[in-house]
Specification:
The structure holds two protein chains of two kinds. Chain A is mainly alpha-helical. Helices cover about 40% and strands about 10% of the residues of chain A. The radius of gyration of chain B is 18 Å and the shape is globular. Classes of the chains: A mainly alpha, B alpha/beta. The interface between A and B is large, with 54 and 68 residues.
């Protein structure tokens, strides 16, 4: 039975999903923000599961659909819906074009059950104990998000702006420059190291990530053991041409026994397109009890002339590579503390008297809709979609601001921007529900933190000249100017009106320490809505001059 | 301008003529000269923004006095904030539209509109209604949000501000029309014509940390728009420059036109309700430095009530 057509469908659908998701993360003037992109996010497993865990709504039940699909046909998710899976397939394909033509592209690989189920247990265990750290670092969707949002987006901005500048040199204004507010360099190390490591794994062994480190792969692997339809090699029809095994990206086809380890099959359907007898394909399969493959079925050490030798050598090389990768990751983490952080401390002061008092910040400022930091930390997997979507560049990946379990989760960085009073976009795009969607009116009274004025740092006090930059930007007039001396005015904060948007801190020109800063709330509070007392103004019809 | 020359030198020579569309020859020359009876200031009230401008510009000698055939014009409204027109934090879009129309009728080759906004520029252009207005009128909207657009210029007469980065459109256009909105300002007291020019420079923080009033006045000695049109149709009397709600706004239905930006600011200060224009630091300093005249009592003022 010829099922080769399945691959064509798979490729088209996967590319559509990848394109929609990538556009969303690169976010060029909201071009990516389409209903289709929202639909593409719907079945993303981890975000959908997290959202469902709070809302129990069908609108967030995408992961259930994936489970049903897996119970029917195995891990279709992994090569069709998962953007990281498709990205790996593209890397495999490109690498294939670059390399010398090889007959044997892939080989059967031993399952790494301890590792993959260990990772799954770790991710679930940590999540249940209130930390999304393992999920953040390993979830395929979030990793794809960081690759697209943190690495691809700045590249796109460079190309876009270069093109715009070229057109402008001919007197044409547009496409207008896009702005990328650089996150702390250390935060970019994570997606960069992950991407390099992933490429390394691909070079060694195809979709190895999906069957070792990916918690979604491990979970769906468990479920796919009970799939009603499984890919099978018809024992009698098979002529042992070995094409299926050497094209299997997951290395899960064992020719010796003519078996497909369906728990590791990523449903790429390569095997179906190369089978000489067109025999391999989906077949009805009763539920199989879950047990580890018997030791007999495992490949044993063999003499070096055995066909498995190269594969074993590669395996040990791969082990080394993986250890090196882990070491590199650990080193990078340790190095974080020493790298410069983009806090309120700026480089060159333009004020004549450099300020002296550091800003005493106790908590980071979590995005509106996070509600409280603990809750937010429990739900965010740091996919950075909000970082891409934030039009003011205030949302930036954190390092250890929230502690280890909040690694890479977004926080408001008032050195790069401020939270616009007229914007509630982060809550609308957040796929896990860590940032709840808020109506604009509601968001305008959520107090993320409170502004603190440091008089001894203020230009008006130190230089005795007018400024008022903080007051200019304050949307609620929580920061307002009161008479000082010699006709000058100086800021004053009315905390009840403050929403903690950080516009004042962002605008304050005092350096190295600013004269006004926002300290975050552990639990977001309610700000007063500014009153709209009518003005007393007598209109007159003449001119006062 | 340097980047353009550079790219031209790179081998796009054939297109150089197109590339230099902005650097026209008749730079800042007026198409017509003021006749003897032309007032220094036109103050007009009690009308819609369009009607105020129609009558105001006529009293000042008509748009052809400022814009000649084939010239490029820059109109610089205040588009600082991501708020709707009724909040009066930005220049009224109806006025901007009318001005662009007048420029084109006078024969302008191209009319550019831009501001270096405070809030995100796309949001501010959109929310202010000015994006729509400019497109409808046939003008061109240019961004001011990227340092690449700004060229370093020297301010010879500046006391605190000796050099700054100015938007290339403001540098290169034949005619520069400054269209501020009159409003209160927490740090500078008032925001009018001189303050509006902070939107043609790149680094505003430098001004704030370096004696704001002096910097505003310094820049006014260097950059004198060909025409200033002060939008006082809706005036934000408190909580400026951003404002909190429409309760901060009074419908004054007025407009001021002058070729002298210090005069425009001085008159605006009186209209706003200040006893003396000198109450505003930068108006006093600019007057003292000779950037323009603030002695309204000695000027020819044309007062019109519609």
């Amino acid at each position: 039975m010829n099922q080769a057509w399945l691959k064509k469908i798979r490729v088209v659908v996967s590319l559509v999903f990848l394109a929609l998701t990538t556009l969303l993360f690169v976010d060029f003037d909201r071009v990516g923000e389409t209903p289709a992109a929202t639909a593409a996010l719907y079945p993303q497993f981890v975000p959908s599961l997290l959202k469902f865990s709070q809302t129990i709504a069908w609108g967030a039940a995408g992961f259930l659909a994936v489970l049903v699909l897996t119970l029917l046909f195995g891990r279709v998710y992994c090569s069709t819906l998962c953007p990281l899976g498709t990205l790996q397939d593209i890397v495999i394909r490109v690498a294939d074009q670059l390399r010398k033509p090889r007959k044997v592209k892939f080989r059967y690989q031993r399952p790494h059950d301890v590792l993959r189920y260990g990772v799954l247990a770790l991710a679930i265990g940590l999540f249940l104990s209130g930390s999304t750290l393992a999920l953040s670092l390993l979830d395929p969707f979030s990793n794809f998000g960081r690759i697209a949002g943190d690495l691809l987006r700045p590249l796109y901005v460079v190309v876009h702006n270069g093109f715009g500048q070229l057109l402008e040199s001919f007197g044409v204004y547009g496409p207008f420059p896009l702005h990328w507010k650089a996150p702390p360099l250390a935060a970019l190390i994570f997606p960069a190291v992950f991407l390099l490591g992933l490429i390394g794994l691909i070079a060694a062994r195809g979709r190895l990530f999906c069957n070792t480190l990916c918690p979604v792969g491990a979970l769906l692997g468990l479920v796919s053991r009970f799939a009603l339809f499984k890919i099978r090699i018809p024992q009698d029809a098979c002529v042992l041409c070995a094409q299926c095994a050497i094209h299997c990206k997951a290395g899960c086809i064992r020719l010796k026994t003519k078996e497909v380890d369906f728990s590791r099959c990523v449903a790429c359907f390569n095997c179906m397109t190369v089978c000489e007898t067109l025999g391999i394909g989906y077949a009805w399969s009763g539920p199989v009890p879950f047990r580890r493959p018997s030791p007999v079925a495992l490949p044993r050490p063999q003499p070096s002339n055995s066909p498995d030798a190269g594969y074993r050598a590669a395996l040990s090389r791969d082990g080394k590579a993986r250890r090196a990768l882990l070491r590199a990751g650990a080193t990078a983490l340790v190095g974080l503390a020493s790298l410069p952080r983009s806090s309120s401390v700026g480089a060159k002061p333009s004020n004549r008297v450099p300020t002296r008092l550091a800003n005493a910040k106790t908590w980071p400022v979590a995005p509106p809709g996070a509600r409280d930091i603990a809750r937010f930390n429990d739900l965010c997997t740091a996919c950075h979609l909000c970082v891409s979507a934030c039009p003011y560049g205030v949302l930036q990946p954190s390092l250890l601001d929230y502690g280890w379990s909040g690694l890479l989760q977004p926080r408001l960085d008032f050195a790069t921007g401020y939270c616009s009073y007229e914007c509630n976009r982060c809550g609308q795009v957040c796929p896990t529900g860590a940032i709840l969607p808020l109506a604009l009116v509601a968001k305008q009274t959520v107090q993320l933190g409170v502004a603190h004025f440091v008089r001894d740092n203020c230009i008006v006090y130190t230089d005795h000249t007018a400024c008022g930059a903080c007051d200019e930007y304050c949307p609620t007039k929580a920061v307002h100017m009161i008479p000082y001396r010699d006709g000058l005015t100086i800021p004053e904060v009315r905390p009840a009106l403050c929403v903690g948007c950080g516009a004042c801190e962002n605008a304050c020109p005092a350096r190295p320490y600013r004269a006004i800063y926002v300290d975050g709330h552990l639990v977001h509070q309610q700000a007063l809505r500014p009153s709209a007392k009518p003005l007393e103004h007598q209109p007159d019809s003449g001119f006062p001059f | 301008m340097q980047r353009r020359r550079f790219l031209t030198a790179l081998g796009v020579g054939a297109w150089a003529g197109v590339g230099l569309t902005l650097g026209g020859s008749g730079r800042r020359s007026c198409a017509g000269e003021p006749s003897a009876g032309t007032p220094d200031l036109v103050a007009i009230r009690n009308g819609e923004p369009e009607a105020l401008f129609d009558h105001g510009i006529e009293a000042l000698g008509g748009m052809r006095r400022f814009v000649g055939k084939g010239q490029t014009v820059v109109v610089k409204p205040n588009i600082g904030w991501n708020v709707p027109p009724e909040r009066a934090a930005n220049t009224n879009p109806r006025l901007v539209r009318r001005i662009v129309e007048h420029c084109l009728q006078a024969g302008a080759k191209a009319v550019y509109v831009f501001d270096h906004t405070c809030d995100a520029w796309r949001d501010s252009y959109r929310a202010s209604g000015i994006e729509r207005a400019v497109k409808d009128a046939g003008g061109k909207l240019a961004p001011g949000n990227s340092e690449g657009y700004f060229q370093t210029v020297a301010i010879p007469g500046g006391r605190r501000l000796r050099r700054t980065q100015e938007h290339e459109l403001a540098l290169e256009a034949d005619v520069f029309i400054n269209v501020p909105v009159l409003k209160s300002h927490g740090g500078a007291r008032l925001s009018v014509a001189m303050k509006n020019l902070m939107g043609v420079v790149w680094d505003r923080g430098e001004w704030h940390s370096n004696d704001l009033h002096q910097c505003i006045a310094d820049f006014a000695t260097y950059r004198k728009p060909d025409l200033n049109v002060v939008d006082a149709w809706n005036v934000m009397l408190r909580h400026g420059p951003r404002g909190v709600s429409t309760a901060d706004v009074v419908n004054m239905r007025s407009q001021l036109l002058s070729t002298d930006l210090v005069t425009a600011d001085a008159a605006a200060a009186r209209l706003f309700g200040l006893k003396q224009p000198e109450e505003v630091g930068y108006i006093r300093i600019a007057g003292e430095m000779g950037a323009g005249r603030m002695d309204l009592e000695n000027l020819a003022i044309r007062r019109i009530v519609l």
